[in-house]
């Protein structure tokens, strides 16, 4: 594997560039952000990625330094128009309610700890105050590795403390209320212990089959039974797979009630178990969820929705691990609920600590899904579901497989209830209603249900959307993902308080419309413009390059570079000079008339070397000068084409850094076969 740096533009109201280093085993990284060759910002990070916010138009690239290497990304260009924030009319303001003064809903728990969030530098004051309230209480600082958060994240302004010793539940409410009166205390949370939290009761999970097969049975291919993958009442996923998007470049971090990690359908190499309870416990719930998302694409069993994504499994007490380890653009799915006496099953945002951890994740630009819960409860009722404000997460409801309407058991009505999927008849790994063999590693079910099944189904769907976006050179933020979900036309549950079911094939087309020019293989230049016309041929089965020569040595035009007609294709403004390549996302049409995109690299090559295509500087001692526009094709970057021949039109301008009025249109007809 070759270590490389991928760079993405983020889709959202806050313009940013995101870099991630692939296939690196370094432990520390130094990221440098450049705009038109000028160093703007540096950041040291323990993760192989970093998100920089940007405010100026131009071409950006990132240099990454480790102990053993220096890597440089391609360039991404921002136009002035892209830097004008656009707020969606239906977007909910991200203003959070005060966490103070809202009594904990956990009146009946006896296994809990106290978590306290304060402004930075409050330790001595808090310790004194705690000792005044109770001399027997031991205050411990919660250790958080803030190096995994970007410099602009608010977590750097706060500290966290915990009290884990056994306390009388009756005294705790007053203790927390007293601490929350202090101006430097953000909240004091009575947080239930979730270590080895029991999976939902048998009445809420699939019944086990009484039919047991012999251990020599060959597991059949159940994928045809996974009708939630189909169009219509499913999520329209199979056609997206056929176009080459199966989860590559995406990461899912899933929290659940244990996993049978040696299940036969989990051995493809993309499933990583960070932590799971002992398998002497019932681990069917997490096993079923994992199959929905990440089961291998093989000739038996089931196929995970995002089977090419990196999948990380965590047990029910591992939220803090996820907060530390998750990266911008990751999909986090929290597939657990908490049962409150005399109320029912509720999502984990009812806990101040969980709400705050989720808010830290979404501020980090991690996309968070969590089960709305199976209680038939209206979550807009603040007496049922405490509202601490918008955490940025998305609540998942469940629908009926036969009509798409809200399933009777699904909670509903929260302003974050934006997405739903099947809450019955889900075919996946684990349990045993479809196949029961000795042990736990070859069983399958066709009755996984509730928000338990809907949550991983939606996580897989969103991972495909992120995968497709990153293949297009952009990354979806939590804000952008929410707006995308709202665009789904699978709205059978409209008005029922569980949001929309994702039509993945439709939504990837919307992503394309956001980042690609409106037409493929179309020339935007009129004949009267006097455009130059070139044909350029590239091979689809090998890495190769073709060039077009431009010669200004006998003209008055100096300092010329090449820019694209459409902002979404590549750089649309000149820069002085930057070594390297520019990324080109070219819409194309294949032999059957289908639209796709080809990822190319373009550079201006002259006597001084290889530069981004929009570099204006002439070679030393040669002004005006001559240069080649070099267009290169990489097999690795275009595996999604499947070897199918295609063609497209790349409209360009030759511009001068000196003469603003010089604007020569160039049509490049690109044939890839």
Automatic annotation (TrEMBL):
This is Minor extracellular protease Epr. It is an enzyme of class 3 (hydrolase). Its EC number is 3.4.21.-. The lineage of its organism: Bacteria, Pseudomonadati, Pseudomonadota, Gammaproteobacteria, Enterobacterales. The active site is at residues 256, 285, 452. InterPro entries: Peptidase_S8/S53_dom (IPR000209), Peptidase_S8/S53_dom_sf (IPR036852), Peptidase_S8_Ser-AS (IPR023828), Peptidase_S8_subtilisin-like (IPR050131), Peptidase_S8_subtilisin-rel (IPR015500). The keyword Hydrolase applies. Belongs to the peptidase S8 family. One of its GO terms (molecular function) is serine-type endopeptidase activity. Keywords: Hydrolase, Protease, Serine protease. Pfam families: Peptidase_S8. Coiled coil: none annotated. The keyword Acetylation does not apply. It comes from the Bacteria. GO terms for biological process: proteolysis. Residues 255-489 form the Peptidase S8/S53 domain.
